[in-house]
Amino acid sequence: MEECDVLVIGAGPGGLAAAKGAKEAGANSVVVVERNSKTGGILNQCVHDGFGLVRYKEQLTGPEYAEYSKREVEALGVKVLLNQHVIDVSTEKIITTICPSGIDKIKAKSVILATGCRERTRGMISIPGSRPAGVFTAGVAQHLVNVQNIMPGKNIVILGSGDVGMIMARRLTLEGANVKAVVEVLPEPAGLARNVSQCLYEYDIPLYCSHMISNIVGKKRVEAVEIVEIEKNGTSIFGTEKILKCDSLILSVGLIPENEVANTAGIKIDKKKNGVITDEYLHTNVSGIFSCGNSREIMDLADFVSMQGEVAGFNAVAYLNGNSMKKWSNKRSTAMKKGFPVQGVITCTLCPNGCQIKKRKDGFEGNSCNKGETFAIQELSAPRRILTSTVKTKNGELLPIRSNTSIPKECIKEVLKKLQNVIVDVPIKCGEEVINMTEEDENKEKIEISIISSATVL
Ligand SMILES: Cc1cc2nc3c(=O)[nH]c(=O)nc-3n(C[C@H](O)[C@H](O)[C@H](O)COP(=O)(O)OP(=O)(O)OC[C@H]3O[C@@H](n4cnc5c(N)ncnc54)[C@H](O)[C@@H]3O)c2cc1C
Ligand code: SF4
Predict the structure, then answer these.
(1) Res 331: pLDDT
(2) CA distances from 344 to 43, 365, 383, 414, 435 (A)
(3) Which of 48, 115, 199 to mutate to test the pocket of ligand 1 (most atoms within 8 A of CB)?
(4) Domains (range + CATH), the chain
(5) Closest residue by CA, ligand 2 atom 1
(6) What is the pLDDT of residue 347?
(7) What residues line ligand 1, using a CB cutoff of 6 Å?
(8) Which ligand ends up closest to the CA of 354?
(9) Could you tell me if 285 and 267 are in contact, meaning their C-beta atoms sit under 8 angstroms apart?
(10) d(Cα 291, Cα 279) in Å, to the nearest integer?
């Protein structure tokens, strides 16, 4: 049986950072076991930007963040086993996996669980109505669009205004769908204020807060959904029903820590949230087994997941050597403002502080640094965005791409149209230029736009 010092289950940002933390703390042999065919976890399908501002001081897409994390563990000599699904962890820290060659076992001195999360489904929230095709979870819809090149529908209603739901509303709109509405049971949007303005307001996508879906209509395929306004106590208000015609309903109604593996080791799980219970050192009730990332607690930012992973890795080695461990402070997981953006207030998106900047007669207030003022001036005069999307490759797969720098907002639709006809030769490295083009901004000035690859495809 193979043996190692630290074994990490899951190669998402949490698991990769945990492996890095363990190696840097002096572990001789660190093994990461991942059930997918590549590392990066959920980040591979999150082609939008907004990752990495804390950890890498750059505005990265999900696949780029995954690539950076992968390079770190490769450079440190971490062993990564792909296509291996962990089915059992014993209290003696013997890990059983299913892999293409059969069943394998690895003995570790310390284990870190970084198995991520799964989505809540229709069955879990009991939406009334018929059972037609066309009801997807947001993660499935995201995988269809960003990885499989399949649109889930043309006329779409999204339930849930968390960040995942809002990001999907923008993505589907940019891909040509008509997003009829985002419906939210809470009186305020559940996600970040910056996503409300950048994903919904900028694309005129209606947001119905304090509403729920009271019926799904359709026999074979979804034909419409009925929404209704609700009171604070959750009861529906008679007479406020509206029918929204659509062919798809996308559910973005929450994430649940994925903890089947933790159960096999007898690890204590929070009954309400399903997260692994740890102490402040990320140590579970089973001696030598640690947990980090979304399998412990759902976290907004991948950067914080990685920072937590590094602490778990460090502590797993400290446990082996009998050294003192580092504490993790939960405060770090929620930094940016959530809910409605305030009228006339600009959310600075340059770092996760998300300062709320307001124009005064003689300047600006609310920005914690000078960069915020420059950002606010730009937002008020000529807003720019990083364009993110996918293009086809010659081998038939989709390649995530982004503009090398932010581009005028008004150019985004035109550039996306042109990218539909681009077919990229592979192999290609993350950061390599895919295509260069010239566009006109609203003042008819010519601007050069460089589109780069967000991933490495060999
Ligand atoms: C749609 C969406 C948009 C997001 N947008 C942003 C954003 O803009 N900015 C940002 O910073 N963050 C964003 N996030 C959050 C961020 O992506 C997550 O918080 C982060 O990826 C969680 O990392 P993780 O390592 O805990 O889990 P994951 O990334 O889910 O990785 C878990 C890994 O464990 C593997 N695994 C699970 N069980 C097993 C098993 N039994 N055996 C072997 N392997 C296993 C899985 O295959 C997976 O690879 C977004 C998340 C989503 C879903
Ligand atoms: S103003 Fe400065 S500190 Fe505040 S979000 Fe912008 S860059 Fe960050």
Answers:
(1) 61
(2) 33, 12, 15, 28, 37
(3) 115
(4) 2-118+255-332 (3.50.50.60), 121-251 (3.50.50.60), 346-381 (no CATH), 385-453 (3.10.530.10)
(5) 372
(6) 85
(7) 9-15, 33-36, 41-43, 46, 48, 50-51, 85-86, 114-117, 139, 142, 163-164, 167, 258, 261, 293-294, 299, 301-303, 305
(8) 2
(9) yes
(10) 10
Q: Does residue 456 register a pLDDT over 70? A: yes
Is the minimum distance from the CB of 371 to ligand 2 under 6 angstroms? yes
pLDDT > 70 fraction of the chain, expressed in percent and rounded: 98
**Hey, which residues does 179 pair with through a beta bridge?**
156
Ligand at minimal distance from the CA of 371 is 2
Top mutation candidate among 57, 353, 356 for ligand 2, by most atoms within 8 Å of CB: 353
Quote the tokens at residue 109. Answer: 């001195």
Structure token digits, residue 239: 């007479």
DSSP code of 19? H
Encode 312-334: b = buried (16+ Cβ within 10 Å), e = exposed.
Answer: bbbbbbbbbeeeebeebeeeebe
Integer Cα distance of 444 and 440 in angstroms: 5
Nearest ligand to residue 337 Cα:
2
pTM, full prediction: 0.94
Mean pLDDT for the chain overall: 94
Could you read off the pLDDT of 282-326 as tens digits, one per residue?
A: 999 999 999 999 999 998 889 999 999 999 999 999 999 999 999
Give, as one character, the DSSP assignment of residue 323: P
